[in-house]
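Support request, priority: normal
Reporter: lab tech (M.K.)
Component: structure prediction queue

Hi team, I submitted a job for Putative periplasmic protein from uncultured Sulfurovum sp yesterday, and the status page still shows it as pending. I've pasted the exact input below so you can check whether something in the sequence is tripping the parser. The sequence length should be 417 residues. Please let me know if I need to resubmit or if it's stuck on your end.
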Amino acid sequence: MVISALFIALLWQMSGANAPLVQKGIILRELPPMDVSSEKSEAHFRLNTIRKSMKMNPLIINDKLALAAQAHANYLVENQNHSHYQTSGKKYFTGVKPKDRTIYANYESTMVSENLSTRSHSAKRSIEGLFSAIYHRFGFLNPSIDEIGVGVAQNKEETQQSAFVYVMGNSNLVDLCQKKSFNGFGKYIYNVCKKDEHRVDTGSYARANNIHKQYNPKIITYPFSNEKDVPTVFYEESPDPLPDYAVSGFPISVEFNDYFFDDVELDSFTLYNSNGSEITNVRLMDSQNDPNQRLSDKQFVLFPLERLNYNSRYRVEVEYSAKGQSTKLSWHFDTTVLHEKLHTITKNEETLSLTSKTSHILYFKPLHHKDILTNVQFPADLDVTFLDNNTLRVSINKNTNDFDILSNNKIVHVKVD
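Reply from support: The job had stalled in the queue. We restarted it manually and it finished. Here are the results:
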């Protein structure tokens, strides 16, 4: 029997994984090519849909940021790279750091940020993955930005090699950099414009940096209140906030907008399941215990250390103190709804009976904190879609015979009814 092997790149991981060992008699199943132009528009639309749902300002496309983003997407795919940094001399090199690439694209301000995902085969997966990656989520939900450029690229022959790049900036800072360099009395800063020596007085810089913050929410929570179809899982990002976990639950975050808050103290941060029971296997992260020192003193994250359940509602409660007053927040969100029958696999070897002429969801529930599917093997004529690194959608037609699905030390024997 001919077997198809599909290597799963971590869909929510910034770093690409090594290529699989393809054994004799096994073929590698390639993904179909993307409509790159359509996915680029879709990525921008999805990001703005989230920001608008949170009462945040949408991000307007800036052509120069778009040039920088597309150039880096081309570089990542061509050189099979997954980093925010480029190496001089390689094809499509336009600058070592994100700000170098925006300068190359003639963007006036150097105060830019960049998010990227590789081996994400759609805008939906790219955005979902970056929102599960907490540092990148905060980048997308920055209340001071108002413009963005999106770049998407894919290798036409090796379609698993793809990249989505997002470069964000503040148009008011650009306006300052286009004005005459400050030469009056008072404090000023430099190294914030394309020309390093360009001076900006500190008052103007602060106003430009804060102008959008005052129109964005005082408290930015994600998943946002009443959000639907929230993913259940977080895998990894670079840098990794949970280096000791390969798989965990989708993180919940709170950011206190520093335009409105000088000092804030988080008193409690609690997650409840659909039965009203508190989820206690969690890790609360703030600026004091963040292993990568990326979080500000206004940013807090609650990591469920086990995957959330599909088709479920969760409630979040946050209590905080500011200006001598204690306040409580509460909201809920709903996780991904699966419309096909769900089969949860909890052992390394199991036998399932699946009906033909329909689709089934096979969820390999993690048995430990590093338990993900890799190098999955199945019959070449079987229609399999990977929803994430623990979940498969299997479509069975009337001619499908009994089969096995293998992944390292796991095996599922499927009897077709």
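Residues 36-53 form the longest helix (18 residues). Residues 341-416 form a domain with the Immunoglobulin-like fold (CATH 2.60.40.10). Let us know if anything else looks off. Ticket resolved.
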